């Protein structure tokens, strides 16, 4: 006969079960794994490691033991998780470049700043607690904190450690929970202590008052904090923000020596980034890199400039903007409060809540001591009675089967006092012991009065707390490592800035083929050209400058001068990289810096002054710079730099007019104003802008004529005038050229 087994069970919707299971898991991760407690600033695994090491007797004065021994105790007694995760948490607390005030003194390979996870296996390393760890443990056995059973209920462990300092700010920490995270930066002990004591003495102190004592985080690797003071203040006011860090450097014998890196930045990674730019030929001003870091100089990265003409500040600004030499450290002051709930708190809330925790801890410590003093005074009172009646006490002990109740009745003492009398050794029955008891009584009575006075006065209790904080700050504190310097945002160098500045001559042929030759002493017209092609024009400049090409419709195009084909060949067609309109042909070049000025004109006799930046275009199709009008075409542009320059315009009828550059409008695009008066059927041949110390050469067939400044006096006149007719033989000028005296 089959039997049906019935079990007690609970049925619930899958949605309800999944929601509860997820929330339970989330709260476990938040409270028991990822976030630190405001009281001692530790996550559970960190707290258990420190406590287990104290139970093993691994104080700062003891001999270190294998890290595997500590990890075994932690995961076997308090933290039933993986040994590798536990050991990694232990390693971080021992790394001086991760913790501002390390809790563990590690012996062996515990990782490097370049590779924090390069630590040796725990079977090879040894460890003990640091002196600073005593600020977390020294009051543990004095009734200061609550205890809880471990995971299997066989041992007790502290819920928190009785921290004497706000460790939550001193060492900070990071953690990722479910739906929240924490990123608390480290701070300087002396500054945190000063701010804490100030808040203790002035409970109404605002954030500005606290910021005077605690201006910013302080990172173990040093470097500079370049965030503006107002940004840091806002960070402390909200509990969220960003702190920007920048490496520091000095210049030694022309070489750049980086001596401090931002927090959690690898020097090897930085050198790799710089070397990558050098390999890509994006950092021509750097010739060599060296890593000279050693035990005495944990960070010493050397960058060798190519020459002493390199602008070191501009170079470093570029490296700050493009490498890990500058980084932003996220700040999220998310901690578990005294109420057991996680929340993002501002600086004042964290310090205030920690002071509440510390006040409770000190009060419990004093009360615990008070109980011990009263118990001892009670026992001493019974011992003194025994000494005053020593013969009778001995008689009772020798003659009575149960001496304890007899003594309690005879001398009116308690059971505790009777036990203390019965536990006395014969050597303590000397006359001298009575004086010792009375002396101890007096000392304990004085201590009792002091304890009562402190516990009964908030002012005295605060004074005690402040004095202990200041004493620890004096013992364990040090100077600030991260300097506070407000600096401008780093700017990466442009592609032109990174290029070597070499003299070049850009040559353009009539059919639109372009090439570049090194140097300015190039005889451009004599170069070899393709069959059916010929020289049109050339422009001298530098390889890192802007090159502008103008076509006959007045559109302008921008090319990278350093990317042009070499003049050793016949060049490449511009139509391969540019898309001019149908029927348009290229008529001229202009090269220079972005602020270089030039004259644009059409053969209809109109023109204006502009800059190369205004007519630059990264579009393959260019942009309209000069409005030529119907049946007109653009002329070759003419660049100039002199403030007192003049413009010379020559027409197809041999008329030449020279006018001051100020008479032309300055436009970014357009038609411009009339340069010279033209007759019907006459058009403008060319324009040239030149300074007073330059010569103007006119070419007509095989003949040429050069006009110095004085020679041009006869041709000068107001804008839109007719000018003057050139001598016979130059009524058909083909081109103008500008030369320096």
Number of helices: 18
Biggest sheet architecture: 4 strands, mixed
CATH H-level superfamily of the domain at 495-740: DNA gyrase/topoisomerase IV, subunit A, C-terminal
**For the record, what CATH class of the domain at 495-740 applies?**
Mainly Beta
Overall 3D geometry? rod-shaped
Reported by name, the CATH topology of the domain at 495-740 is: Neuraminidase
Give the second-level CATH assignment, the architecture of the domain at 495-740: 6 Propeller
Radius of gyration: 43 Å
Strand order of the largest sheet: 14-9-8-17
Low-confidence stretches: none
Look at the structure and give the mean pLDDT: 92
- What structural class should be given to the helix and strand makeup? alpha+beta
Strand residue percentage: 15-25%
* N-to-C span: 125 Å
Classify the helix fraction into a percent range. Answer: 25-40%
